[in-house]
Design brief:
It contains twelve helices and 17 strands. It has about 375 residues and is an alpha+beta fold. The strands form three sheets. Strands 9, 10, 11, 12, 13, 14, 15, 16 and 17 form a nine-stranded antiparallel beta sheet that branches. The protein starts with 9 loop residues before the first strand and ends in a 6-residue tail after the last helix. The protein folds into three domains: about 80 residues, Rossmann fold, CATH 3.40.50.20; about 60 residues, Dna Ligase, domain 1, CATH 3.30.1490.20; about 190 residues, ATP-grasp fold, B domain (D-amino Acid Aminotransferase, Chain A, domain 1), CATH 3.30.470. Helix 1 crosses helix 10. The chain is globular. The structure holds adenosine-5'-diphosphate (ADP) and magnesium ion (MG). Magnesium ion binds next to loops.
Length: about 375
């Protein structure tokens, strides 16, 4: 049984990137104390928290030290080992448990789970070697995408095969060396959307309005809310959100990514058992943010009904955008500017984001489109 934790209690977060930082902002605002475990000293989350344990994510002694110092433990990413969680559970509450982690860490388990819950995933075939790859391509028909089953993010560990005749087998072999892969049919996308759901240990949920997402080079570029989709799709997406939350025994925040095809089929793409980049606009646009909801969930407070206070657009600032965006900030009083405070600026690394509240999202999108910051 998970206790309700009131402000003054200490929350431990494994992982100190931007998601940990925004969780910490929410927690601190409410009066909780926060300790971060992350290998990078003064990482984004540690900059806004009460303390940091500098350690690798799999350093069990240090994780136990964190657990002992906290009233509740949470994490900002899905690649925390379930065994580790079971070990630290001896010392503190870990209300999120391990089910959502273990299901979402493996694309095959994740897809099976989604299908068993009654929802559609993209046609795919599991492959162990290059012969099975050939058979999969024959079965599915090109174009296809080969994906590693573990550890992928921002399109890493994926190869798009438009023309199987011209495919580079050495690249596919490189993915297979890492372990089992899947070959997935490439969908003709009309839209990509996501839904954020949060829950507490009593099974109460908060579900956020559907968000529409545009990716560039497989990295999220722009999110807008509300999503412009049919009522049927919206209803279906909420059903998926509620049911997957229940079946995963969700506590805290998760996000489900969807593909809507040109023939209006809704496919569940993947599940992140944590706050999600596409949900950042909830900070300014909703009555509570996905991070507030996460903290409420893991501390077992009641979950509120979510309201969209104003339509919003969120645009990511990658390494190549940050400096120019900072310079341009003076000209944009409408920008809610977020710089995560990462030390090292790298091409395609998520460094920050901007949210714009707007009653005319088309105009806002056009203004973003016309700004040369995001041309690179
Ligand atoms: P990641 O873990 O890197 O987010 P995803 O499976 O979500 O992996 O893929 C990243 C992006 O690549 C998606 O958001 C989408 O734009 C594109 N993509 C991935 N799989 C497909 C597919 N089967 N059909 C069409 N586009 C895809
Ligand atoms: Mg994704």
């Amino acid at each position: 049984m998970n206790k309700t934790l009131l402000p003054g209690a200490t929350i431990g977060i494994i992982g100190g990137g931007q998601l940990g930082q925004m969780m910490s902002f929410s927690a601190k605002e409410m009066g909780y104390k926060v300790i971060i475990l992350d290998p990078t000293e003064n990482c984004p989350a540690a900059q806004v928290s009460d303390g940091q344990i500098v350690a690798e994510y799999d350093d069990l002694d240090k994780l136990i030290e964190l657990a002992k110092a906290c009233d509740v433990l949470t994490y900002e990413f899905e690649n925390v080992d379930a065994k580790t969680i079971n070990e630290v559970k001896k010392y503190t509450q870990v209300p999120q448990g391990t089910k959502a982690l273990s299901v979402t860490q493996n694309r095959i388990l994740e897809k099976d789970f989604i299908e068993e819950s009654g929802f559609k995933v993209v046609p795919h075939v599991v492959i162990e070697n290059i012969f099975e790859y050939h058979r999969a391509v024959e079965k599915l028909g090109a174009p296809v995408i080969v994906k590693t089953i573990r550890g992928g993010y921002d399109g890493k560990g994926q190869i798009l095969i438009n023309d199987p005749e011209k495919a580079c087998f050495a690249d596919i072999e490189k993915l297979l060396v890492q372990g089992t892969c899947i070959v997935e049919k490439k969908i003709d996308l009309k839209k990509e959307v996501s839904v954020v759901v949060a829950a507490n240990s009593d099974g109460e949920t908060s579900i956020f309005p559907v968000i529409e997402n545009v990716h560039r080079h497989n990295i999220l570029h722009l999110s807008t809310c509300p999503a412009v989709i049919s009522q049927n799709s919206e209803k279906h997406i909420y059903e998926v959100g509620e049911k997957l939350a229940k079946n995963l025994e969700l506590v805290g925040t998760m996000c489900i990514e969807f593909f809507i095809s040109t023939d209006d089929q809704v496919y569940v793409n993947e599940i992140a058992p944590r706050p999600h980049n596409s949900g950042h606009l909830t900070i300014e646009a909703c009555n509570i943010s996905q991070f507030d909801a996460h903290i409420r969930g893991v501390c077992n407070l009641q979950m509120p009904k979510i309201e969209l206070l104003k339509p919003a657009a969120m645009i990511n600032l990658l390494g190549q955008h940050l400096d120019n965006a900072k310079k341009d900030l003076v000209n944009h009083p409408e920008w809610h500017f977020h710089d995560y405070g990462k030390d090292e600026i790298k091409q395609n690394r998520k460094m920050g984001h901007i949210t714009i509240l707007s009653d005319d999202l088309e105009k806002t999108k056009q203004a973003i489109e016309n700004n040369s910051i995001w041309d690179v």
